[in-house]
Design goal:
The protein has 322 residues and is an alpha/beta fold. 50% of the residues lie in helices and 15% in strands. α3 crosses α11. The longest helix has 23 residues.
Length: 322
């Protein structure tokens, strides 16, 4: 179990402290039986909590510090990973990782955001906020994958693109716009998995694909709830209301056909069991990749184009739903 619990998991945190206290005492059959009973209660409470999460609680789960990211999935699903560095223009952006690996014995290209775990790594990865060179690096690698007919698998997990002055100076908006155009025309299969936060253009800059999959407790939105609350209500404290209004959860987005499939997570979220989460991702990814690869190139491109063009027709229905 993770050491960190979220605000709404207070009942679980109390039981976990009891287990920790009992574990420090001499081991007996009676004490072990009590620990096992507490663990069963935790599983029951956690299952009930996660069946009724509010949108804001889902945001908290998506941002959990122990949530599995690209590097965790590489370790469990994609052997023989060889990283590609640099955009050949300015620098190597550490917030986006790219490289070739194997998936079920076949070569694929991996592209994804990386947030980092501890403070040192988070600073190195810029907390997952990618700069223009990150998007240009991603596109360079994707073009390489297209040249050698390698499928592309994208993992999205970022609050947003980096908003700093230097990012603007180097053309972050242009870099994202070019990626949107070029990814729409890539002739190789592209599968996108929203694994954590899918924030704004920072997410969309690498999220054009034939299939958009989303983990059960991930989020995908044009703006973070705090930013939305500050703009709409002039009060960032209304983040829970903003999360509800943004329709950023996987069930909402599946209903609006923004995504194609929800990948189930272990009870209590992916952060509680990385191995089980990876197995679920593996199953969904394998199925989606088989479906997409079965199509000829022109049919695949037509479907990809139609998929994203049809999203713009949801405006009226979306307003009605609100």
């Amino acid at each position: 179990m993770p050491a960190e619990t979220l605000d709404f998991e207070e009942p679980i945190a109390v039981l976990m402290k009891e287990i920790e206290a009992l574990s420090m005492l001499p081991k007996t059959d009676a004490r072990q039986s009590e620990i096992d009973s507490l663990k069963r209660r935790i599983d029951s409470i956690r299952g009930d909590l996660y069946r009724h999460l509010t949108p804001w609680q889902r945001v908290q789960v998506a941002r959990h510090s122990n949530r599995p990211g690209l590097e965790d999935f590489i370790q469990r699903i994609f052997p023989n990973f060889v990283e590609i560095h640099g955009d050949r223009r300015f620098a190597d952006d550490h917030a986006i990782m790219t490289g070739f690996a194997e998936y079920r014995g076949e070569p694929v290209l991996l592209v994804g955001h990386v947030k980092g775990r501890d403070t040192k790594e988070k600073i190195f990865r810029n907390f997952g906020y990618a700069r223009p060179e990150g998007y240009r690096k991603a596109l360079r690698a994707m073009k390489l994958a297209e040249k050698f007919d390698r499928p592309i698998v994208v993992f999205v997990d970022t609050p947003a693109a980096y908003p700093g002055i230097e990012s603007e100076e180097r053309g972050v908006a242009e870099a994202i716009a070019v990626n949107l155009r070029e990814m729409m025309m890539l002739e190789t299969p592209v599968i996108v998995i929203v694994s954590g936060e899918g924030g704004s253009g920072g997410a969309l800059g690498i999220a054009i694909g034939d299939r958009i999959l989303m983990q059960e407790f991930a989020i995908y939105s044009v703006i973070p709830p705090e930013g939305c609350a500050a703009l709409v209500w002039r009060d960032s404290g209304k983040k829970a209301e903003a999360a509800e209004a943004l329709k950023l959860t996987a069930p909402d987005l599946l209903g609006f056909k923004i995504i194609d499939e929800i990948i189930s997570e272990p009870a209590g979220g992916a952060h509680t069991d990385h191995d089980a989460a990876a197995r679920n991702v593996d199953t969904a990814l394998g199925r989606a990749l088989d479906e997409v690869r079965a199509l000829d190139t022109q049919t695949r491109l037509n479907h990809r184009y139609d998929k994203f063009r049809n999203m713009g027709r949801l405006g009226f229905e979306f307003v009605e739903e609100l």
